[in-house]
Amino acid sequence: MSRHLPVRGAYNIRDLGGYTTAGGGMIPWRRFLRADSLHRLDPSDVTRLHDEGLRLVIDLRTPQEVASAPNPFAAFADVHFANLPLFDDLSPQAMSRAEVADAHPLLTFYLTALETRATAICTVLSTMAEHPEGGVLFNCTAGKDRTGIIAALLLGIADVDRDQIIADYALTADLIPDLVEEFLDLSRARGGDVESYARLLESPATAIAATLDHIDQSYGGVTGYLEKIGLPRSDLQKLYLRLTRA
After folding, report:
1. Do residues 137 and 59 lie in contact, with contact meaning Cβ atoms separated by under 8 Å?
2. Could you read off the pLDDT of 46-67 as tens digits, one per residue?
3. Residue pair 166/212 in contact by the 8 Å Cβ criterion
């Protein structure tokens, strides 16, 4: 199967299936999908994703973002839709004002999210764990930062090795150049700081690698982090089984 799902109206829908785990297994295809905003998705592809087993869509954007660019699955009868914002006012633009020295500005963003958005992260993962059946899709605007954090945690739960997690994150850069150009054009038209904004639209492997280092050094790994922030062990086990059991 193809990791990237080419569809009309979205750039960055892709499957977490196919990654290998420490136990020698493989994450099943069409079990978990990560995505950018779906508001321009062609109706035929909405139906196609449902027909391929999609039953839960979690939109990580703020309610304001969802209102301005509605998710088509919110009105799709046979798919459960949940708007579970990973951030409130925390955004890459805000975080760029407090960078870790000598690091990419996104690193501060990711570390701050891990340390301050524990309740939101637990809610997202518990919702995934408790949904009874079918595929799960989670998305944000570019499918890069909010989605990237959740994807890295899911792959960590499944015991996917570090190099594969980093490669999954960095793959976004190959898929969204047109979307990045669209965002920069909008920023330019509004008189924004295009140079700084462009850095925040990157997908540098170093940022997610340093985030994984932080999780390993501070918590002993993804499982340790999730247990520390209060994700129930029963939900952790359910997610592990959904990620690893054929």
Report:
1. no
2. 999 999 999 999 999 999 999 9
3. yes
